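Long-time lurker, first post. I've been practising inverse folding by hand and with some scripts of my own, and I keep getting stuck on stretches where the structure tokens seem ambiguous. Below is the full token string for one chain I'm working on. Before anyone asks, I'm not after the true native sequence, just a reasonable design that respects the backbone. If someone could post their per-position residues I'd love to compare against what I wrote down in my notebook.
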């Protein structure tokens, strides 16, 4: 701390030797030594700094200080906006690795639920006008409520602007062809304003009059719905943060320690104190601005000297933690404490008549828990994690399209005997890579062979779920895979472990949005039908036409739902014990739904009648007779507390506390089995 004090004191004394009226950049006292990622100034006396390491800071016209009360969770630098000190919106990363939207109203932070777990951009023009973009969804704010609308593209939205109650702009990113587009939403209609070549960067996206994009050596300005070239210069390639006073006065950060200014038709490097790793710049006028960067650095551009940086200021700084403590679980089945496991599947993989558990981890290696029930005496060793030794960790091998030993961001999984050799093989869906098919050697050791088997899919599919079933009644298992940004896929199996994609010929081509899926014969014709839950689209019920194709009948059958329910997981089961399959669907944005089968493959909504109306954000679900009373119960995995619904014959009762299965967390996948072979279902 003494060294830091001396450095700041020396810089201050150097500043004192110049006139206080000189317009220049000066070091300003900082309330932290953490990295500062983004600055937003509303006026000369109100501003905010976002630090993903240390939280939110504010400027009150005299000094920078920590914003109180503190925001729950870790703030997201990209998803932040404010219209005043009493109207602040931001996303934080909670302890369960989900983005949570918060609003500060001048007194307290209040969590606002919009059904999106990955918030990308926030834009508020006034207290009653805002826009939030996430994965496959956009929410418009009118001062009271959020309205979800369909996005104009299946690709990511990197930037958003709320202009007027009926006018919004969004900028696309990660388009497969590299040509991202700018869209305008006006009077309930999306319009592509312009498509840009690969490499375009939107660096100022504050309002339509301050929209600047960089492409190679060229800086573009958007005005009156037209694009004009502002400047062509090699300096532009190195710019990473922009702030526009007007079209003829633009400030930018170049490299790690240079501030440049475009004025009079040319770029000029501006003298600044000796700092490095500047991250964000915000100009209030041609004579006042701020820049922030690593290690708590704050620079102020004005004619006024900065306050003295004293030892008292610095002693109040909370140093960034260098270490993080992690607790270890008592049971080996818990594995690592990292809460990253997503999907789960259960099967006896090594033929010892004990069910083993496989879980996929999104950003960590997958896990295979081998069941040692009654083999070992220590009850804490019943489940042994052996994914690495058995070849199912989900780490990439060295190929031309990916480096070695990287996690594949797996998300879903399913066991099935695809080659009819009485062993359980394993299919895993990849969200950022190709899908994986692990072939079992009979002893529970696996070799990956998705490409050879014809089921790898495309690396851009972002696959979610996989289910097996015999769709054409030929005695061989077929495979259906849901995809988030491309069409779902159906593969017919030939019984030897090889598959052929038949998506188009079976009338299953879609655009995007696929989440969970389930096979079941809903109309009693002897062929399994298919239900698919979607995000940002209505759900699909495909009726099997004698194993030759599927016809989509979701709306006419009464089970399509609405586009913005963000449906997650469906399950088909006989709720009433009347001999036909009923349907339960979990949703992220609205209540889950129970549809009772009328006996012919059409349904009616019985959610309220059966006591299943709820307000939870739900993921996975399973049905099973957990209390051995002859009817099927439900378990729902939620963001928050899970729920166990006991079937009473004519309604469901929430018996979560009664049966002792209350669990709170970010719960996604769920599966059931008799893990300890005692005759009842576990999950």
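-- Answer (accepted) --
I ran through it position by position. Result:
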């Amino acid at each position: 701390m003494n060294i830091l004090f001396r450095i700041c004191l020396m810089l201050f004394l150097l500043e004192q030797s110049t006139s206080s009226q000189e317009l220049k950049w000066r070091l300003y006292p900082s309330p932290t030594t953490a990295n500062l990622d983004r600055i937003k100034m509303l006026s000369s006396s109100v501003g905010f700094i976002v630090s993903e390491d240390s939280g939110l800071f504010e400027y009150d016209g005299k000094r920078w200080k920590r914003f109180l009360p503190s925001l729950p969770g870790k703030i997201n630098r990209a998803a932040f906006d404010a219209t005043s000190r009493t109207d602040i919106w931001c996303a934080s990363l909670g302890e369960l690795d989900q983005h949570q939207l918060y609003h500060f109203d001048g007194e307290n932070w209040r969590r606002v639920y919009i059904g999106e777990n990955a918030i990308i951009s926030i834009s508020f023009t006034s207290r009653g006008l805002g826009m939030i973009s996430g994965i496959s969804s956009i929410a418009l704010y009118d001062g009271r409520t959020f309205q979800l609308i369909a996005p104009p593209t299946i690709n990511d939205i990197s930037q958003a602007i709320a202009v007027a109650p009926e006018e919004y702009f969004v900028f696309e990113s990660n388009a497969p062809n590299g040509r991202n587009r700018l869209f305008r939403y006006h009077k309930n209609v999306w319009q592509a304003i312009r498509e840009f070549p690969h490499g375009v960067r939107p660096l100022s996206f504050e309002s339509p009059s301050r929209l600047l994009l960089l492409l190679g050596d060229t800086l573009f300005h958007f005005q009156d719905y037209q694009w004009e070239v502002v400047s062509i210069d090699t300096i532009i390639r190195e710019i990473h943060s922009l702030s526009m006073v007007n079209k003829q006065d633009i400030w930018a950060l170049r490299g790690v320690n240079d501030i440049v200014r475009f004025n009079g038709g040319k770029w000029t490097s501006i003298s600044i104190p000796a700092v490095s790793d500047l991250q964000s710049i915000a100009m209030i006028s041609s004579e006042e601005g701020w820049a922030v960067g690593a290690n708590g650095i704050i620079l102020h551009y004005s004619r006024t000297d900065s306050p003295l940086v004293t030892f008292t200021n610095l002693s109040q700084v909370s140093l960034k933690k260098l270490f993080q403590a992690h607790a270890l679980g008592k049971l080996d089945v818990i594995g690592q404490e990292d809460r990253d496991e997503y999907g789960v599947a259960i099967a006896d993989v090594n033929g010892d008549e004990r069910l083993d558990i496989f879980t996929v981890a999104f950003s960590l290696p997958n896990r295979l828990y081998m069941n040692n029930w009654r083999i070992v005496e220590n009850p804490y060793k019943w489940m042994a994690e052996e994914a690495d030794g058995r070849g199912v960790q989900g780490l990439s091998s060295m190929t031309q399209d990916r480096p070695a030993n990287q996690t594949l961001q797996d998300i879903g999984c399913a066991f099935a005997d695809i080659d009819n050799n009485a062993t359980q093989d394993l299919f895993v869906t990849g969200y950022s890579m190709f899908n994986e098919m692990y072939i079992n050697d009979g002893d529970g050791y696996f070799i990956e062979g998705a490409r050879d088997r014809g089921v790898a899919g495309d690396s851009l599919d972002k696959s979610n779920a996989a289910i097996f079933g015999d769709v054409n009644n030929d005695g061989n298992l077929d495979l259906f895979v849901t995809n988030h940004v491309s069409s779902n896929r159906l593969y017919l199996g030939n019984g030897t472990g090889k598959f052929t994609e038949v998506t188009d010929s079976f009338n299953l081509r879609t655009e995007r949005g696929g989440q969970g899926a389930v096979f079941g014969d809903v109309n009693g014709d002897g062929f399994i039908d298919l239900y698919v839950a979607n995000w940002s689209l209505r759900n699909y019920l495909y009726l099997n036409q004698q194993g030759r194709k599927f016809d989509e009948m979701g709306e006419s059958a009464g089970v399509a739902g609405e586009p913005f329910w963000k449906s997650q997981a469906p399950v088909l089961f006989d709720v009433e014990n009347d001999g036909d399959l009923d349907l339960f669907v979990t949703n992220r944005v609205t209540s889950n739904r129970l549809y009772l089968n009328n006996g012919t493959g059409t349904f009616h909504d019985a959610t309220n009648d059966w006591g299943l109306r709820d307000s939870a954000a739900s993921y996975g679900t399973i049905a099973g007779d957990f209390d051995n009373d002859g009817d099927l119960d439900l378990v729902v995995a939620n963001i928050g507390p899970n729920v166990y619904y006991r079937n009473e014959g004519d309604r469901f009762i929430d018996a979560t506390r009664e049966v002792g299965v209350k669990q709170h967390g970010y719960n996604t996948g769920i599966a059931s089995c008799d893990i300890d072979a005692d005759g009842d279902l576990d999950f």
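A couple of notes from the structure itself: Residues 10 and 370 are 63 Å apart (CA to CA). Helices lie at 2-16, 311-315, 387-390, 450-453, 554-557, 656-659. Happy to go over any region you disagree with.
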